[in-house]
């Protein structure tokens, strides 16, 4: 039993050392982020642009792609599922086309095509 206790104590000491290292890394990261935030705040005040305008100007200047920002097109429009669309998708898949290819052609998600094939939209008339 004594050996088992010593093993557990060594394991706890290693875990404490690992946690102490993780805590030190997180504290350093928090300090670095605080410094960066202060620098950015100073930059925004110095430039005089609203932060959103500054971000978009930088994105446009350096050609950075941001998730969710569709240039010039606004929000993506949802495809209205009509009985005609449902039937066309079902015919296409029944004719041998893959569901993935059909989804691309009709600009639908694969999941929606799968739902159509399984009958989730059959109540549309």
Write the layout of secondary structure elements.
Layout: H1 2-47, H2 51-62, H3 83-94, H4 99-105, H5 110-118
Written account of the structure:
There is one protein chain. The chain has 125 residues and is an all-alpha fold. 69% of the residues lie in helices and 0% in strands. It is built from five helices and no strands. It has helices spanning 2-47, 51-62, 83-94, 99-105, 110-118. The longest helix has 46 residues, at 2-47. The protein is flat, with a radius of gyration of 28 Å.
Structural features:
125 residues, mainly alpha, 5 helices, 69% helix, 0% strand
Strands, total number:
0
Briefly note the structural class of the backbone: mainly alpha
From the spread of the alpha carbons, the general shape counts as flat
Radius of gyration: 28 Å
Count of individual helical segments: 5
Rounded mean pLDDT is 88
Q: Strand-residue fraction? A: under 5%
Distance between the termini: 74 Å
Topology as a string of helices (H) and strands (E): HHHHH
Runs in which pLDDT lies below 50 for 5 or more consecutive residues are: none
Helicity level: 55-70%
The largest pleated sheet is described as: none
């Amino acid at each position: 039993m004594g050996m088992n206790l010593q093993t557990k104590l060594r394991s706890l000491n290693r875990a404490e050392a690992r946690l102490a290292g993780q805590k030190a890394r997180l504290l350093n990261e928090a300090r670095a982020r605080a410094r960066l935030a202060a620098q950015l705040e100073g930059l925004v005040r110095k430039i005089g642009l609203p932060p959103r305008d500054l971000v978009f100007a930088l994105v446009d200047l350096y050609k950075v792609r941001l998730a969710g920002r569709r240039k010039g097109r606004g929000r993506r429009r949802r495809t209205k599922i009509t009985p005609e669309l449902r039937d066309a998708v079902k015919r296409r898949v029944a004719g041998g086309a893959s569901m993935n290819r059909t989804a691309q052609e009709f600009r639908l998600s694969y999941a929606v095509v799968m739902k159509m094939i399984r009958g989730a939209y059959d109540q549309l008339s």
